[in-house]
Amino acid sequence: MEPIKIGIVGIGNCASSLLQGIEYYRYRSKEESIGLLYWEINGYTPSDIIVSSAFDIDRRKIGKDVHEAIFQPPNCTVKFAEKIPPSRVKVSMGAVLDGCADHMKNFDEEYTFVPADQPEPDKKEIIKILKDSGTEILLNYLPVGSEKATRFYSECALEAGVALINNIPVFIAGDPEWAEKFQRAKIPIIGDDVKSQMGATIIHRSLANLFAKRGVKIDNTYQLNTGGNTDFLNMKDQNRLSSKKLSKTEAVKSVMKEKPDDRNIHIGPSDYVPWLNDKKVAFIRMEGRIFGNVPMDLELRLSVEDSPNSAGAVIDCIRLCKLALDRNIGGVLEGPSALYCKRPPAQYTDDTAFSMIEKFISKDLYN
């Protein structure tokens, strides 16, 4: 198979886990490949993915080989791949725009980024890098709240003829105007806001769906998340948090038979705890009523390494995007977006979304 060439915006913990994962599975057989939903998708395996371009705004990463840059601070995710050979792709200076919250600029350098001391590239320079490198699919790993920067890179992808996987809760696939742009250009897009493999949102959705199927009325529920990576530090700015809360809340409410009032459902990040590093600890509480209107409640605590938890979903999205490129399918990929994203243009149950993926892979297209 020809390699799938990806570009990455934001060389943080999530990019580190993804690139480590590609190397990790390169040396393993199908039988050894724990943690993947799909070992292969129409012949494409994880080892068919290579990084061809990369962008960041931290001077500790710019100019370095991307396989070296993924281990630079403030990245703090676990190192699980034994062999990480040089990629021969250097990290380019990216556009800053609103890609960094003001409160992070004067924070301890160990936990936040160090601003670059070189000029920002304009759109033409980014597009040239994408084209010259042969990048086919661009991954958006910008911090939550990067509205202007996400739109900037989305425009770059469109003008360069590159597919987009929008992993953050800035609504591009879910915005009808942007969706139409990608449809007209016949360029595939998956989004918005990637779900983790076994994260708080997918578990909360599953529990809400279970309550509905078992006839339990949900009165109140919350999901509180804590972590120590730059994502949680970034989200201490409440102004950058609104789209994230909306994305996570809609993902859970969409599977509820009866939607609770806004005051009775609270979902979103709670606090930044530096010593947790890339570990995420989530607390879910659900209060409801069973037979005879008798009250019951459920509490759950989830602890997981945050960034590897999303990499498996993204590695599937890359291959599904490539499949769309091979088949000349453009616009929002509805099934992949529904299964792998918290805030797709259309919400489906996970069973329905999985069925849509199977049909998409087998060419029995749902659209």
What key attributes describe this structure?
single chain, 367 residues, alpha/beta, 11 helices, 33% helix
Beginning-to-end CA distance, first to last residue: 26 Å
Question: Share of helix among residues?
Answer: 25-40%
Shape: globular
Number of helices: 11
* Average pLDDT number: 93
User: How many E strands?
Assistant: 11
**Strand order across the largest sheet:** 3-2-1-4-5-6-11
Percent of sequence in beta strands: 15-25%
How would you describe what is shown here?
The protein has 367 residues and is an alpha/beta fold. It is 33% helix and 20% strand. It has helices spanning 13-26, 66-69, 123-133, 147-160, 176-185, 200-213, 230-234, 242-253, 308-326, 334-340, 350-361, and strands spanning 4-9, 49-56, 92-93, 137-140, 163-166, 188-190, 217-227, 265-272, 279-290, 294-305, 331-332. A seven-stranded parallel sheet has the order 3-2-1-4-5-6-11, with helices on both faces. Strands 8-7-9-10 form a four-stranded mixed sheet. Strand 1, helix 1 (13-26) and strand 2 form a beta-alpha-beta unit. Helix 1 (13-26) crosses helix 9 (308-326), helix 6 (200-213) packs parallel to helix 8 and helix 10 packs across helix 11. The chain is globular and about 65 Å long. The model has no long low-confidence stretch (mean pLDDT 93).
List the helices and strands and how they pair.
Blueprint: E1 4-9, H1 13-26, E2 49-56, H2 66-69, E3 92-93, H3 123-133, E4 137-140, H4 147-160, E5 163-166, H5 176-185, E6 188-190, H6 200-213, E7 217-227, H7 230-234, H8 242-253, E8 265-272, E9 279-290, E10 294-305, H9 308-326, E11 331-332, H10 334-340, H11 350-361
Helix pairs in contact: 1-9, 3-4, 6-8, 10-11
